[in-house]
Amino acid sequence: QVHMVESGGGVVQAGGSLRLSCTASGLSMEQYAMGWFRQAEGKGREAVSCISWSGSSTYYPDSVKGRFTISRDIAANTLYLEMNNLKPEDTAMYYCAAAGVVTTTMCTPFGENYWGKGTLVTISS
Prior knowledge:
0% of the residues lie in helices and 52% in strands. It is mostly beta strands.
C-alpha cells in the first residue's frame, strides 16, 4: 500500500519562502516519477513541479518557473519542493503524488491511489 505524507506548509508573507517535504512508503522514488500538485479553493488541480523517475526531466508551468524547484533524496525516499518569492496566488493545498508522464511541457498524475493528503500553503499579501 502506497502512503505519502507531506509537511512544511504554513502561512508566509508574499515574497517569502517555504520548503515542502514528502516522505513515501510502498513505492520507490527511484522507480516512479513524482510530482507536486496544488488545488486552490474553487479551482482545479494543477501540476506545479514534477520530476521523471530518472531525474533527467523536470516540469514547471510558467506560473512557477524560476521560483519553484523540485528535488528528491532517493535514499530517504523523500521528495522536496523549494518555493521562493511566493505570491498570494500560490495559496493552495499542495499534494505529493506519483506522476505518470513527465516532460518539460507536461506532467500527469499516475493514479488516484498514489496521493498524499496534502499540506496547506497560505501566502498573505
